[in-house]
């Protein structure tokens, strides 16, 4: 005799409310995370340092000294890698947001495709890309640039990148929890 799995169908309204709560929390985290990603990537306060007695700051695209900003024209591998991973992260987060919004509707032409699961995976992919970009930038800055400039520190654009990574991670957690609630609500039918 095969033991029956307990279904959440008896508590369907409560289960559905929990599912929508997880999806709403995930969507909030994802939207905030994507905004932070865009701001972090676009601004030029990743690192601040003192050079020739003046304060200077730099980002992924520009560096500024003595109230004048200049484009980063050097094609340095770690800048290009960090830029690419941050842009890929923003794109995958945006795709996750679209899938997350679509997951509020239950009309699916694919029986085995769950939009909540797809959104959660996209947010985890986005988290991974941010982690790669931030790790590359951190490693190069600490090991090479930090030794070149005596008085330096990471600045707010850099910190926003780490916060965006956490927000995308939590968005993924929320959407995977919503997926689990949806699976529980479906019962124990064959797949």
UniProtKB/TrEMBL annotation:
Q: What is its main location?
A: membrane
Q: Please tell me whether the keyword Disulfide bond is annotated for this protein.
A: yes
Which residues span the membrane?
20-42, 84-104, 116-136, 156-178
Q: Gene3D superfamilies of this UniProt entry?
A: 1.20.140.150
Coiled coil region boundaries: none
**From the UniProt record, which GO molecular function terms apply?**
structural constituent of eye lens
Q: Which GO terms describe its cellular component?
A: plasma membrane
Q: Which UniProt keywords apply?
A: Disulfide bond, Glycoprotein, Membrane, Phosphoprotein, Transmembrane, Transmembrane helix
Q: How does it sit in the membrane?
A: Multi-pass membrane protein
Checking InterPro entries in the record gives: LMIP (IPR003935), PMP-22/EMP/MP20-like (IPR050579), PMP22/EMP/MP20/Claudin (IPR004031), PMP22_EMP_MP20 (IPR004032)
Subcellular location per UniProt equals: Membrane
Q: Which family does it belong to?
A: Belongs to the PMP-22/EMP/MP20 family.
PANTHER family in the record: EPITHELIAL MEMBRANE PROTEIN-RELATED, LENS FIBER MEMBRANE INTRINSIC PROTEIN
Describe its function: Present in the thicker 16-17 nm junctions of mammalian lens fiber cells, where it may contribute to cell junctional organization. Acts as a receptor for calmodulin. May play an important role in both lens development and cataractogenesis.
Q: How does it assemble?
A: Seems to be associated with itself or another lens membrane component via disulfide bonds.
Protein name as annotated: Lens fiber membrane intrinsic protein
Source organism of the structure: Zoarces viviparus (Viviparous eelpout)
């Amino acid at each position: 005799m095969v033991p029956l799995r307990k279904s959440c169908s008896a508590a369907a309204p409560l289960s559905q409310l929990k599912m929508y709560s997880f999806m709403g929390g995930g969507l909030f985290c994802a939207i905030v995370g994507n905004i932070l990603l865009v701001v972090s990537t676009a601004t030029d306060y990743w690192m601040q340092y003192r050079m020739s007695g003046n304060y200077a700051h730099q980002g992924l695209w520009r560096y500024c000294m003595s109230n004048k900003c200049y484009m980063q024209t050097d094609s340095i591998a770690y800048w290009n890698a960090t830029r690419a991973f941050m842009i890929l992260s923003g794109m995958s987060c945006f795709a996750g947001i679209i899938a997350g919004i679509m997951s509020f509707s239950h009309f699916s032409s694919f029986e085995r495709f769950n939009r909540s699961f797809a959104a959660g995976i996209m947010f985890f992919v986005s988290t991974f890309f941010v982690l790669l970009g931030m790790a590359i930038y951190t490693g190069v800055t600490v090991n090479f640039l930090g030794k070149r400039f005596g008085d330096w520190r990471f600045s707010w654009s850099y910190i926003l990148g780490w916060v965006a990574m956490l927000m995308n991670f939590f968005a993924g957690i929320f959407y995977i929890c919503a997926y689990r609630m949806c699976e529980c609500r479906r019962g124990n039918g064959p797949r």
